[in-house]
Amino acid sequence: MKVTLEMIDELRSRVNVTYEEAKEALENNEGDIVQAIIELEKQSKNYHGHRRHKSDNVNKNANRVLNKFLSTDFVLRKKDKVYLNLPFWLVSLIALGTMPFSLVAIVIFFLLGYQMRIVTGKKTKFDINKNVDKMTKKFKETTDKIFEESEEMPKEESVSEPEELDDEEDEITIE
Known about the structure:
With 175 residues, the protein is mainly α. 63% of the residues lie in helices and 10% in strands. The chain is built from 7 helices and 3 strands; from the N terminus they run αααββααβαα. The protein has helices at 5-14, 19-28, 33-70, 88-97, 99-111, 128-152, 155-158; strands spanning 73-78, 81-87, 115-119. It is rod-shaped and about 110 Å long.
């Protein structure tokens, strides 16, 4: 059966499809509008089902990442004693809100020999901990070396006598 423009228009008025899709559906169903509508609805359900499936996968992955982030902890310890164990999201918010103070606190913790850890719910450590350990060790070695050198320096050299002022220099008086 030959597909006419009126048949395509009729099908398009009932189903939201392009002229090409309407013509193809009518040709596949020998001009039967009802069968063409049924075929187009089946195709539409399969398409929307596929989109819903992709959406479900995105939601599952987002939930997995969010749960991983929420189950991650920040641990501050020295030797075997834990001084601070807080959720990482909370520490992140505090650090962002108090950025200059947070940086100073990190430096102080390094100087005092504390270890900072990022731990997941499974108690596995990220690679960041290895780098933090290396940095802490280098920092501690450097500060120890500076303190040792300052102690070895003779007291006579470390304290200098104030130089006497020449009488020829101008004096500035602020009233």
